[in-house]
Amino acid sequence: MSTQISTIFREIEIGIDENITSLLKGIEASGAVVSNRARDILNKIELSKFKQSFDLVVPSVEELGYPQGTQLRNIYKAGNERGLYLCPEEMGPKLREKYTDQLVHESLTIATELIKNSVGDSMLFSVEHSAHDGLWLDAYLISADSYFNAKDRFVFVLRK
C-alpha cells in the first residue's frame, strides 16, 4: 500500500441546496462565474437528498506517485490506494461556492465519476482562479486516457 494522504484542505457540506437553481445562485452570489460547459453538466448531476460533510484533500499527480504525470485512470487508482474516495458530483459546484479565497492561477480538477454533457461527452468540473477573469466553475472534456502533468492537482474525499 502506498503513502496515505491526510492533510485536509477543506471541509465541505453538500445536500443543503433545494435544487440546481439554488446551487447556481449560491455560486454566483460568491462572486464566481459558471462557464457554459459547467452549466451544461450542472444540469446533469443529482444533488444529495440529505446533508453530508466531507473532508477534502488536494494531492498533486506527483504526490500520487507519478512524477512524470499520468493518465486519469492511474490518478484515480492511486488515490484509492491512498485512502481517497471520488467526490460526489455536487462537490465541484459546492467547492466553487465556498472556496472564495482561491489563489490566483490555481486550478483544481474535481475527482468524480465522469459526467456526461448534453451531447454525451464525458466531462469533469474544475474550480479555477484566473488573474483576468476571477473565480470560475468550469468543466472540460475528459476520458480515462486523458493525461495530466505531475503538478496538476485533484480534489478527493478523505476516507474517515
Task: Kindly describe this structure.
The protein is built from 4 helices and 11 strands; from the N terminus they run βαβαββαβαββββββ. Helix 1 runs parallel beside helix 4 (91-98). The mean pLDDT is 94. The two termini are 17 Å apart. The chain has one domain. The longest helix is centred in the N-terminal third of the chain and has 10 residues, at 20-29. It has 160 residues and is an alpha+beta fold.
Specify the overall morphology.
globular
Whole-angstrom Rg? 15 Å
Average of the residue pLDDT scores: 94
Number of helices: 4
Q: What is the N-to-C succession of helices and strands? A: EHEHEEHEHEEEEEE
Give the N-terminus to C-terminus distance in angstroms. Answer: 17 Å
Biggest β-sheet description: 9 strands, mixed
- The percentage helix is 10-25%
How many strand units? 11
Global structural class: alpha+beta
Strand content: 25-35%
Low-confidence stretches: none
Domain module tally: 1
List the helices and strands and how they pair.
Layout: E1 10-14, H1 20-29, E2 33-34, H2 36-42, E3 52-57, E4 70-71, H3 72-81, E5 84-85, H4 91-98, E6 107-110, E7 115-116, E8 122-130, E9 134-141, E10 147-148, E11 153-158
Parallel strand pairs: 2-9, 6-11
Antiparallel strand pairs: 1-3, 3-11, 4-10, 5-11, 6-8, 7-8, 8-9
